Amino acid sequence: MGIAAVGNNLITYVINEMHFSLSKSANIVTNFIGTVFLLALVGGYLSDSYLGCFWTVLIFGFVELSGFILLSVQAHVPQLKPPECNMLSDSEQCVEAKGLKALIFFTALYLVALGSGCVKPNMIAHGADQFDQDHDPKQSNKLSSYFNAAYFAFSMGELIALTLLVYVQTHSGMDVGFAVSAAAMALGLLCFISGTFLYTNKRPQRSILTPIAQVVVAATLKRKQVCPSDPRMLHGSHSKEPISDNHVSNNFSNIQPTQRFRLLNKACIKDGNNKMESPWRVCSVEQVEQVKTLISVVPIFSCTIVFNTILAQLQTFSVQQAASMNTQIPHSTTFHIPPASLQAIPYLMLIFLVPLYDTFIVPFARRITGHPSGITPLQRIGTGLLLATLSMISAAAVEHKRRNSNITLTVFWIAPQYLVFGVSEMFTAVGLLEFFYNRPSAGVQSRSFLTAITYCSYSFGFYLSSLLVSLVNKVTTSPHSSGWLSDNDLNNDRLDLFYCLLAVISFLNFLNYLFWSRWYSRPDHDSGTLKLAGRIPPDHHHNMYSFNHAV
User: For residue 242, what pLDDT is reported?
Assistant: First the structure.
């Protein structure tokens, strides 16, 4: 809730209090949010390798809290901010934050980013670790419900942040709003600590990065060698009998190398002598198959980056779009909707939709498909990607109407783009979390790191947004006209054309996803995965129902 209140209304603070231009402010926001999610990798790595989920959440929770406090102090003390002025009417007279003032602002902002980035993946993974799928297969159904419940809690936090906290920020000042975020974070930490003796805590394992590096190095050193025709001659594959299709052994020694990325199989070639080789020169088949699984999910992950680029627009330009419309409630003369609060619309809908989805739609779909989650994570992701395209089409149509209308449109015109994207996010975000957490890639138990990878999609999406804004401005600027997004006034910009561009990119990305989801679901990938895991993971019972086959 705290990070949502800061991130979703940050552009207002950066423009009105720090006096940065519209395009620069949008990039500051997207870079901040992108860094939050990129730092999730750091949190996942520290958790899996050294600290564990519990201690990572606790330590970096206090780092995030310190950032909120510093933001609140700066927003409250006039000497720590540029002189007041109106960026809409006197932008040329406004002084941009520089020197010590900018240093304090960015230090506070990135303390929040560091703390939040390291907390996010570990909170999800720590909750999921309470379900023991290895010893109780029925826990798979509960795990799927947990991911839906976690998203429901996230939606509730976003809803409160985008209504109550944004209202406080708008009417009581950003200093009070940041202070409330700090108080919410402190309360959350106290609640987390209160369950210390009830948690199931998994011990840190070896780093997931070291085995990956070992496989790459070993395969490179032996790239000119020829793999033996008998796979049992490879290191770590000692089975004397082939594995049948109807038997999946629980013994990792029965792993057989797959043909996907077969160049990596050379990492398993043993030298002729019986001497012990360095793990950097020879790797087990199990280790190689783990690396192959990680490489296989990269295209799926990459296809969600554009999805999060669209999310970045709803937290930046769409907020400014709302600010240029009539925010007054119909039949009310005094109450105006804070523009940033419009982002609460999808979450208000989702707090009702997510329980209905989990209670009625999932059991109904489960009876049809036999899948514990009703539909596979790949199907969920694909559905969300298609809906994201429709969201941008709606945004472009509304902005075109706003620019050409003789009257000031009511702010509720932009509600559809938020509603459609909200449903899209429910499918894509939850599907991606479930997809990565259930990867059988890791006999190395790197759940936090794998969950953190999902947040990197947010990071790259927001960075791509910053790049697109700068690139579009550069390409569309000419001696006779300014760029599409170069003015501080949306009436002079061409946000509608920018939204159209994003709609086209999003649809092409959806088609790209169909190709890679089909590639990922090919039988040669599945067979290797089943043998690697030693058991059939939940989403592979029906993985041939991949999204592209469903449409």
Answer: 39
* Amino acid letter, 495: L
CB 325 within 8 A of CB 495: no
- Cα–Cα dist 193/477, whole Å: 54
How far is Cα 458 from Cα 461, in angstroms, rounded to an integer? 5
Which value, to the nearest 10 degrees, does the dihedral of the CA atoms of residues 498, 500, 502, 505 take? -130
Candidates 119, 132, 127; CA nearest to 65 is 119
pLDDT tens, residue by residue, 103-115: 999 999 999 999 9
Q: What percent of the chain has pLDDT over 70?
A: 81
**423-461 pLDDT per residue, tens:** 898 888 878 877 876 664 444 455 667 767 777 887 788
Q: What is residue 333's DSSP assignment?
A: S
Cα separations in angstroms, 409 against 228, 330, 358, 404? 71, 12, 37, 10
Give the separation between CA 368 and CA 362, rounded to whole angstroms. 10
State how far the Cα of 126 lies from the Cα of 139, in Å rounded to an integer.
15
Q: ∠ at Cα 276 (272, 277), nearest 5°?
A: 80
| Residue 25 to residue 17: CA distance in whole angstroms | 11
Of 110, 115, 139, nearest in space to 127 by CA: 139
CB 394 within 8 A of CB 312: no
| Residue length of the chain | 551
Which residue bears the tokens 């008998």?
Answer: 230
Poorest-pLDDT segment among 10-19, 194-203, 225-234, 527-536: 527-536
The pTM assigned to this predicted structure is 0.70
Residues with Cβ within 8 Å of 292's Cβ and at least 6 positions away in sequence, in order, are 258, 260, 261, 264, 528
DSSP letters of 495-550? Answer: HHHHHHHHHHHHHHHHHHHHHHHHHHTSHHHHHHHHHHHSS--GGGTTGGG-HHHH
What digits encode the pLDDT tens for the residues 144-179? Answer: 677 778 778 877 887 888 778 878 887 888 888 889
Give the position of tokens 């561009």. 501
- E strand or H helix that includes residue 28: helix 22-38
Closest alpha carbon to 72 in 109, 98, 46, 113: 109
Question: Tokens standing for 203?
Answer: 């011990």
Amino acid at 45: Y
Q: Are 355 and 152 in contact (CB under 8 A)?
A: yes
- State how far the Cα of 350 lies from the Cα of 230, in Å rounded to an integer: 54
Which tokens go with 41? 């990798």
Q: Which contiguous run of DSSP H or E holds residue 367? A: helix 362-369
Q: How would you classify residue 370: left for phi > 0, otherwise alpha for psi between -120 and 50, otherwise beta? A: left
